[in-house]
């Protein structure tokens, strides 16, 4: 299971209208992007077993963990869920047409922000408060982006891979891998590309409650990445598979069983320690109960906070922005009882 690259940029922020635990605070690239541009203050902090860590951005919300065990205990109790993935496209209407007609998604909502010169649209297979979603960002006048080499693919679970592939082909889509068993396994898969060149792995997974099931990113040190997502982000290592014949290893990370939830698929290619990330892929959003504590845990376990936690101007949503050790972006944010976590694309880009 392999594919293409990534980056971050602009977008906007939308939230659930009422307080809903662990649910749909949905950060888009515009408001969060503007906030990141305004506060590009990289900060990296690590500590030992007795480290005391405080968040200086909001004195009223200062956080102290007395030890790494204390931080891990809180992370394990935090209510988290993968909310949505954000990326840029060059023709929003064309992309929406492909996703709805070929992949069976629905447009959940769409928003145009002319004063900021962008439009975004949320698509998926069910309500945002219970399903993983896609946020497409279109910046006025920009019709092409560089996907890079670090971004891999998105995964879609379907009842019949062959039928889906034929539909994609009939609609003029590009099929890059015909249906057949995955290398080293039995699951039937295929690969197709959307109009911007993003790869989608089509997996035969009948009756799945979460068809939008994977985001694959390439990393330079798999053990380091697994440790970060377990400790800093509270994910579970669901499975790990080494494929020496094809010289790669994959690890599935997430917040629940792979057959029922969207997961982060981390791929390590033997001997490759760094990837270009381009400017197309942006970030993943993760729900969390407390954006301040999330930021401090990230610092403690080797991540970089590139925007200190705090409210966005003019609204009650609170966010922070972080980078994982490979530079992938997340933006944790919160409103009421919701928070979003998102990881940036490159250590040096912010």
From TrEMBL:
Cellular component annotations (GO), alphabetically ordered: cytoplasm
Entry's transmembrane regions: none
Cofactor: Zn(2+)
Taxonomy, superkingdom: Eukaryota
Listed pathway(s): Secondary metabolite metabolism; methylglyoxal degradation; (R)-lactate from methylglyoxal: step 1/2
Keywords: Lyase, Metal-binding, Repeat, Zinc
Residues at the catalytic site: 201 (proton donor/acceptor)
PANTHER family the record matches: LACTOYLGLUTATHIONE LYASE
Catalytic activity: (R)-S-lactoylglutathione = methylglyoxal + glutathione
Top-tier EC class: lyase
One GO-annotated biological process of the protein: methylglyoxal catabolic process to D-lactate via S-lactoyl-glutathione
The protein, known as: lactoylglutathione lyase
E.C. numbers: 4.4.1.5
UniProt keyword annotation of Oxidoreductase present: no
Binding annotation for Zn(2+): 135, 153, 201
Coiled-coil spans in chain: none
Molecular function terms, GO-annotated: lactoylglutathione lyase activity; metal ion binding
Family: Belongs to the glyoxalase I family.
Gene3D superfamilies in alphabetical order: 2,3-Dihydroxybiphenyl 1,2-Dioxygenase, domain 1
Record's cofactor remark: Binds 1 zinc ion per subunit. In the homodimer, two zinc ions are bound between subunits.
InterPro entries the record matches: Glyas_Bleomycin-R_OHBP_Dase, Glyas_Fos-R_dOase_dom, Glyoxalase_1, Glyoxalase_1_CS, VOC_core
VOC domain residues: 81-205, 211-335
PROSITE patterns according to UniProt: GLYOXALASE_I_1, VOC
